[in-house]
Amino acid sequence: MKKRVVLIVIFAVLLIGGIYVSTFRLTDIQVSGCQVVDEKTIIDAIENTGYSGNTIMLYIGNKLKPIENIPFVAKVEIEFISKNKVSVTVYEKSIAGCTAYMDSYVFFDKDGIILESAPEMIKGVPCIRGLEFESWEKDQKLPIKEDKKFQDILTITQLVEKYKLDIDSIRFTAENQIILMHGDLTIELREGEYLAEQLMNLGSMLKNLNMTEGKLNMKVDNGVVTASFSRK
Prior knowledge:
Elements: H1 2-21, E1 28-32, H2 39-47, H3 55-64, E2 73-82, E3 85-92, E4 97-101, E5 104-108, E6 114-118, E7 127-129, H4 147-162, E8 169-172, E9 178-182, E10 184-188, H5 195-209, E11 213-221, E12 224-230
C-alpha cells in the first residue's frame, strides 16, 4: 500500500511538473553578435534542434549538446530570459581574408586556416587574387606552395585588421609584386620586403591625401616610407 502511494505521489509530481514545463512556450528569440551571419540563419538552426517550442528544453538542450555546424559561427550561447523569451549570443569566427576558388570563395583566419567556403564575397573581407591551388580542406592551411607568399598573405591580412585599413583586394602579380586595391586606388608594395612599415603608414596617407583613384607607389628608403601618387 505504502509503495503504491509513493508511486502515485511520484506520478503526480511528474505530471504537475510536465504541465508546468509545457507552459514555457518560446515566442521571442533575441539574437545578438551577428555581423557576417544572418540572424535568420541562427533562428533556423535553433528551430531545427527540436527544442524550439519550449524555452527550458532549448536552454538545457543547448547546454548538453551545443548548436554546431553553422557556417562562420564558432559558438552559440543561449540565455534564459523568461518563460517565453531567450537571448542568443553568436560568436562568429574571425575572418582575415578570402580567395576565389572555382565558382566560390574560400575564407581563412589570421593564421591561414580555412574556415568555410561561400558562393559570394563578404563585405569588408579583403580578397586575395593571383593564388592558384587544386584543392583545399576545411580546418587546414591554405594550400600555397610558396612559403614567402603564404607568410606575406598572413602579414598583410593581420596588418590590415590591426590598422583598420579599408582594403578590397590583395593581388600577387606574375612577378610576385604585391598590389592592394582601395576602391579605385591601386597601391603598389613591390615585393613586400617592408610590409609592416608600409601598412603602418598607409592609413594616414589615405586619410591625409584624400585619394580615391589613381596609383600610389610605396617605397622604403633607409627605413623611411615614401610614396609617389599619380592619377590614372
